[in-house]
DNA sequence: ATAATATTGTTGTAAATGCAACATATTTTT
DNA sequence: AAAAATATGTTGCATTTACAACAATATTAT
């Protein structure tokens, strides 16, 4: 019977910490890129806008669940996007309840497209040394990882 | 000549966003675990303590570079760890300059060991459905990903 | 029917975070 | 030798963030 060598005694050697560090670094890089390219959105606003664009008519709380922010901050991000004219919000009902739904505007779609074009090439250059297969595999593993996390996390959104 | 199908038009489909989301969720899970187990350290303090334990005699700025926090917050985290008696700080020189170096105390080592034992099993249960090979592969890919990021990021620590 | 609970969004607040400015000391440049 | 630049740590502040409390409405329980 083989016993696994228990060499990863340190938290800093765990996949949890590796993920944390990589993500932190990546956020830094992307934020710096946004400033360099003079993109008038924060990274979070961009992610929210992109999420709205593929989830037309979503309500705020559901969006909050998707972008993993609480309702308060989701509302604030949407305030900013609305004020910039990239989304429209309208009152509607969901399960007989009044909710604030939203959609992306023409201008928002155009802006999203512009940012995508600006950013995409740059971000891909970061992963150029990594094979498509590896990228694919990491994304798949992360997805199943995320599913496991969702099972144990308490979400109070 | 094959042309790649360009189907990943959305940022939210990119590995960058997937990483961000997984990391955010994981942080939530770990923080909740720390509270449930009544661990008297924040996640950041834990990571810092672990880093100090394997880098005896490191100075503050070098530690900041390792944990990817700025000098200000690194100092604050260390204040807390010192106040709790888990590290000791002492003035020394590095390249002829006065620096604050640090080391983990007996008590800190004991605490770290306790937390490691408490946390390890729980965190591993999250990845139990993922094969060791996949975990290994993800960690390797993330590492090369991180190297690429380090090439392009501007670090002003 | 009335009370208790649940859903959705907003406001307030305390903590975390990053950045710039500062103090101090050393090295490099002129 | 004087001035400029660099390295290290701390302090202050403005932004971000999460969490709790609230308001309004609808559903469920008693």
Topology readout:
The structure is a homodimer of 157-residue chains.
Chain A: H1 15-36, H2 43-53, H3 60-67, H4 71-83, E1 87-94, E2 97-104, H5 106-126, H6 132-152
Antiparallel strand pairs in A: 1-2
The structure holds a DNA duplex (30 and 30 nucleotides).
Key attributes of the depicted protein:
homodimer, 157 residues, mainly alpha, Arc Repressor Mutant, subunit A, two-stranded antiparallel sheet, globular, DNA-binding
Could you please describe the fold and organization of this structure?
The structure is a homodimer of 157-residue chains. The first copy, chain A, has six helices and two strands, in the order ααααββαα. Chain A is mainly α. The first copy, chain A, has a single domain, classed as Winged helix-like DNA-binding domain superfamily/Winged helix DNA-binding domain (Arc Repressor Mutant, subunit A, Orthogonal Bundle). A two-stranded antiparallel ribbon of chain A has the order 1-2. In chain A, helix 2 crosses helix 4, helix 2 (43-53) packs across helix 5 and helix 3 packs across helix 4 (71-83). The first copy, chain A, is globular and about 50 Å long. Chains A and B meet through helix 1, helix 2, helix 5 and helix 6 of A and helix 1, helix 2, helix 5 and helix 6 of B. Chain B binds a DNA duplex (30 and 30 nucleotides) through helix 4 and strand 2.
């Amino acid at each position: 019977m083989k016993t696994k060598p228990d060499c990863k005694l340190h938290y800093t050697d765990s996949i949890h910490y590796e993920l944390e560090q990589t993500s932190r670094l990546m956020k830094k890089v992307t934020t710096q890129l946004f400033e360099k390219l003079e993109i008038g959105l924060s990274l979070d606003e961009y992610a929210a806008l992109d999420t709205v664009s593929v989830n037309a008519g979503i309500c705020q709380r559901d969006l909050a669940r998707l972008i993993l922010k609480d309702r308060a901050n989701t509302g604030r991000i949407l305030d900013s996007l609305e004020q910039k004219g990239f989304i429209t919000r309208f009152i509607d009902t969901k399960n007989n309840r009044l909710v604030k739904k939203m959609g992306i505007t023409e201008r928002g779609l155009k802006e999203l497209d512009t940012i995508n074009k600006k950013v995409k090439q740059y971000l891909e250059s970061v992963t150029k040394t990594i094979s498509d297969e590896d990228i694919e595999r990491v994304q798949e593993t992360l997805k199943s990882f995320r599913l496991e996390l969702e099972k144990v996390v308490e979400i109070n959104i």
